[in-house]
C-alpha cells in the first residue's frame, strides 16, 4: 500500500461518512413534509418486509401533507398500518385507494429533543472520521517501520490526513448546525 492509496482510501471513506450523516439527518422529521421521511418505514409485501417506496408512490401534497398512492389496491391497509406503527408519530388517513399523511406541528420540547438527536448523529460521524484518521496514521506508521517511506513522507502525509479530517469535521459541524436551525424554525 502506498501513500497515495492511503490518502485516497481515507478521503473516500470520510466522504462516505458525510453521505451517511446526510441520510441520517434527512430521516429526522422537522415538521415539513418530504417524501424521504417514509424511506425507513417497511411494510409486509407478500411475506417480505420492503420499504414503502417500493410498493407505493410517495408524494408531497403541501408543506404539511404527504400522499401515499399504493400500486396495488390491497396494499393500502398494510401501508397505513406500517406508517401508524412506525416511530415517526404520524397518523395516516385512508382516502379510498390513497393515504394522506398529515405532519403534526412540532412542540418546543420535541424540537429540543430532535436537536439532541441531530448533535448525537453529528458526534457519531465525527468519531467515524477520527477513527479513519487513526487508521490512516497507523498504516503510515507500518510503512515507516517497514522502511518503505521516509520520516519526512510520514510527517507530510499525516499533515495531509489531519487537514482532511479538519475539513470533514467542519463539514459535519455545518450540516448539524443547518439541521438544528431547520428544526428550531417555527
Automatic annotation (TrEMBL):
Keyword Secreted attached: no
Q: Tell me which domain of life the UniProt entry assigns to the organism this sequence originates from.
A: Bacteria
* Example of a GO MF term: ribosomal large subunit binding
Give a GO cellular-component term.
cytosol
- Stretches of the chain forming a coiled coil according to its record: 126-153
Record family assignment: Belongs to the RRF family.
- Please state what the protein is called: Ribosome-recycling factor
What is the organism field in this record? Pelistega ratti
Amino acid at each position: 500500500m502506498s501513500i497515495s492509496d492511503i490518502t485516497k482510501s481515507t478521503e473516500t471513506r470520510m466522504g462516505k461518512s458525510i453521505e451517511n450523516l446526510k441520510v441520517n439527518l434527512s430521516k429526522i422529521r422537522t415538521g415539513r413534509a418530504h417524501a424521504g421521511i417514509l424511506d425507513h418505514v417497511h411494510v409486509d409485501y407478500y411475506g417480505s418486509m420492503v420499504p414503502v417506496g417500493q410498493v407505493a408512490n410517495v408524494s408531497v401534497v403541501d408543506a404539511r401533507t404527504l400522499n401515499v398512492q399504493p400500486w396495488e389496491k390491497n396494499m393500502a391497509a398494510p401501508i397505513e398500518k406500517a406508517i401508524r406503527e412506525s416511530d415517526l408519530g404520524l397518523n395516516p388517513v385512508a382516502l379510498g385507494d390513497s393515504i394522506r399523511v398529515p405532519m403534526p406541528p412540532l412542540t418546543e420540547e420535541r424540537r429540543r429533543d430532535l436537536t439532541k438527536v441531530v448533535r448525537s448523529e453529528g458526534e457519531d460521524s465525527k468519531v467515524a472520521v477520527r477513527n479513519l484518521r487513526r487508521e490512516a496514521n497507523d498504516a503510515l506508521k507500518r510503512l515507516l517501520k517497514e522502511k518503505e517511506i521516509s520520516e519526512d513522507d510520514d510527517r507530510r502525509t499525516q499533515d495531509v490526513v489531519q487537514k482532511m479530517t479538519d475539513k470533514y469535521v467542519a463539514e459535519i459541524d455545518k450540516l448539524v448546525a443547518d439541521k438544528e436551525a431547520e428544526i428550531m424554525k417555527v
